[in-house]
Amino acid sequence: MLVRELVERFEQFAPKTWAEPGDPVGLQLGNLDAPVHKVLVTLDVRPEVVDEAIRQDADFIFAHHPMMFHPAKNLDLSVPQNQMYATLLKHDITVYGAHTNLDSAPGGMNDWLAAALKLQDTTGLVPSNGSTATPDIMMGRIGDLAQAMTVVEFAQYCKEVFHVGGLRVISRTPDAPVKRVAVLGGSGGPFYQAALAKGADAYVTGDISYHPGHDMLAAGLNVIDPGHHIESICKPHLTQLFQEWAAENDWPITVQASMLNTDPFTFL
């Protein structure tokens, strides 16, 4: 089969036009008309992931984070990122990225995160700015825990759910009850007002920076930052989704999730 066949099926599930403006989703490198026999699903496309794909004889890398957030200014192969592009081309590996369109897709990234937290009665958090997104296509989710717990207890719960070695807590009321929870994968700091407006007791997202953290404190919102890498939850879910489509369509491909941890941070 061709890469195009899997991509076209995926884009029915999460159209590129649902991505936020300027988000470089879609084909990153290679050719949609290239043959595909083995798919490697990853959060990030890093040199070690490319090496893994080569070891596994994968000819298609499907990533959540686009490989080319910033275009290359040259092709100096002493730059590791440029050498990675050269290695991909040398081994005829096609790369595709699905970012904020997957974040907004029903049954996609933020539903997976909400399900991991066991949130009930979830609804969307932030309307998508995608060019064809309808009002029901939204990034983030908000819902209720089965039982309330304190901010500290909830932070520990998030640590266990997402298997992280550490996380950051923004709160002036660590003993306050948490029942209603908003979650948004990735860097969700700019959207905390939506969590407040929808009555969240706590907001789970990554990459909170210093000054927005002060603003959240002033607003009285409890925030749990378990890091951006919790989006690696996409790997088993996408793998299962692609395997189901392969079975339905009799595609002669195998699909596996990357076994590598691409989180750049280590907690000491």
From TrEMBL:
UniProt keyword Transmembrane helix present: no
Entry keyword annotation includes Lyase: no
InterPro entries reported in the protein's UniProt record: DUF34/NIF3, DUF34/NIF3_sf
SUPFAM superfamilies in the cross-refs: NIF3 (NGG1p interacting factor 3)-like (SSF102705)
Keywords: Metal-binding
Positions in coiled-coil regions: none
Domain of life: Bacteria
Assembly and oligomerization: Homohexamer.
Entry similarity comment: Belongs to the GTP cyclohydrolase I type 2/NIF3 family.
Record protein name field: GTP cyclohydrolase 1 type 2 homolog
Organism: Levilactobacillus lanxiensis
